[in-house]
Amino acid sequence: MELTRRDALAALAASGVAVGTGAVVGTDADGRLRNPFAETPSPEDRMATLLAVADVVYPSAVAGVEEFVRTYALGRTKDRADYREGMVEALSTLDEYARTWHGADFRDLDAETRESVLDQMGVDTAKPDPEGSDPARVRYYLVNELLYALYTSPTGGRSVGIENPQGHPGGTGSYRRGPSADEDRSKADGSESSAGDSEPNTGGGGE
Amino acid sequence: MTDRNPSERADVCVVGAGPAGALAAHRLADRGYDVVVLEVGERFDFEDRKRRMERAIRPGHDPLSVWEMGGPRDAYTSSGERFYPLNRARVKGVGGTTLHWQGMVMRLHESDFESWPLDYGDLRPYYAEAERALGVAGADDNPYAPPREEPFPMSAFPPSHSDSLFAAACERLGVTMHSVPNARNSEAYDDRSACVGYGTCKPVCPSGAKYSADHHVEKAESEGARVVDRAPVQRLEHDDSGERVTAAVYATPDGESHRQEAREFVLAAGGVEIPRLLLLSKSAQYPDGLANSSGAVGRYFMDHLFAGVGGTLDRETRQNHVGFITSECHQFYDDPTRGTEGRDGGVPEWTDSGDEPAPDSIKLEFLNYAGPSPVEMALSGDQWGDDLLDTLREGYGNSIAMGGLVGQRPRKANRVTLDSSTTDDHGNPVPKIHWSVDARTKSSLRRANEIQRAILDELGADVSWSVGPENTGPAFHHMGTTRMGTDSDESVVNPRLRTHDLRNLAIASSSVFVTSGALNPTLTIAALALKAADHVDERL
User: Fold this and answer.
1) In this structure, is residue B424 part of a structural domain?
2) Residues B267, B402: one domain?
3) Which of A132, A162, A176 shows the shortest C-beta gap to B158?
4) Segment Disordered: which positions (chain B) (predicted)?
5) How far is B24 from B480, CA to CA, in rounded Å?
6) Whether A122 contacts chain B with CB within 8 A
7) Nearest-CA residue of chain A relative to B192?
8) B407, B516, B401: which is closest to B455 by C-alpha?
9) pLDDT tens digit string along B324-365?
């Protein structure tokens, strides 16, 4: 399952971010990686922690995670200082727990230990809440943020068997088609595409 | 800065900016009248819709927060046998509950008008106008629907893959399937895009392909109407003779109170807030509430009830790609007790057990959104990584379900009153809903389940749930609380939608319905609103 920038743009478009402006491209003009947390100390460390969470919560067969997450997080936090702040605080919280229990930031733990930190915090059973307890905020701003991005994208949906997942403007063709249709259905029908690589639109033609 | 002062000179004051108010305001503004619309809620920014959709999909947000409902403004109480969850599916704001609605728009059947003081023929031209106004995608393939004189404005959405699974079973049983009229663009219409398949119609359509009444509010404004948002009407005042309403008294966010005078008033605030406003407007002359000489204001509250059966199949059913349905069955609408005969059996006739009433009209729906959507499962589960993916694959794919609506007959005891023990943010008593589900309605639900079960059994489904007489819930169609009639001792408005008591007070709402039928009410609300506007025009 290869995630692409197109998936990130589609997921962003569905979440209300205007993605046609180029503002959310993951690299700058010199080819350097852009960072959604650039305004905070150690932005690449923040990004690494977010990617470490993605390593735990995304299926192992998913490829292309870094560009997908970086592009998505850039778009999601653009012009949304409060939301970025919520993410940054949740990342700090997660690192604090990791340091307390294992003496290292979350991103520096091995895969098994990362998973155990989330489990011990109770993030798996926490009720997501942007204003809630530590596990509730980690669940909301990190785990569910990443899962929302993945499972409203065409590639994430397709991995479950639905090429037009809820939240994605995948057109009105797929609901009519039976399961015997081509596996890669959305690419077979140009009318299904909502976010191309060159000039993605925001999904709703009425806007 | 928004000007919320009253207009100096207004021909018409409309209370409520949902579909009825928007359509009436647009029609009257278009005819050159000075129209002011007072709306309790805010004007929502279209650009925020995707974030509202996210709030709806992602756990961590109160569902009421999707459209900013709840809180002291919207307080209510509920009594009677069943709790009535009033705020779960109504929206206060420019566009009203059409911001949230499913968008199903059928004409009532001819039989539904039997005890109304007007018949299908009287409403037929208004139905056609309402279909053009809302933009209805439909097909003339329903043998049980009332006659129509012209095609739908847009072609119907084609049947879904799961409809085709149902079709084979229904054919074997002699059950007829047909298309559904949707207030949802199957192609670009009226400067709104075709549906792009977000799959979240209810409660948010981010593309605007689903009709919402903010479009007609904008049209009304472009014809010169003025819309004042966040302006809850506190009471209506009348003249000394008690024959005319003189002003709507409304509050504004700055704590001020204003009087909007007008020659004509149109109440379009829905089946709960309209009777509440009339009851709040009691005076020495109308001690039981304005326009309430009959005592019928607030009484005969009706809703539709949901019946459903669902489970899984041994095949992929392709659910949750879109958030609307594409097939229905009205075969049991006019004759709910009938059986059917097909190639391989049929639906049995209703068996009269002797101690329960015969069922009333039933509308059956073939759902396109049975079972969980993967993204919602992922966000509310307690797994991640490969375990989560396995669970999603196992949980999604072969769900199947039918839904349906049945109606309630009008009963005096089901009613909206004022609860003086609880007040809203302006100190007014909140609405109190007295609601129960009677034996006949339970018969209708049982009958609906029986038919649904027969179809799912024929399909080979492993049935795992049903919603029927014991666990049904309301469809949030508030009807009957200012009923229409020719006898001023028994009803609140006449067939011209004007109150019997006050000569310049019209009501455009499902509150004027005499009976409920079993079909989603909004197209009829729209038709009645256009008719009410025509009669206001005649009086002006």
Assistant:
1) no
2) no
3) A176
4) 333-356
5) 20
6) no
7) A206
8) B401
9) 999 999 999 999 999 999 999 999 999 988 889 999 999 999
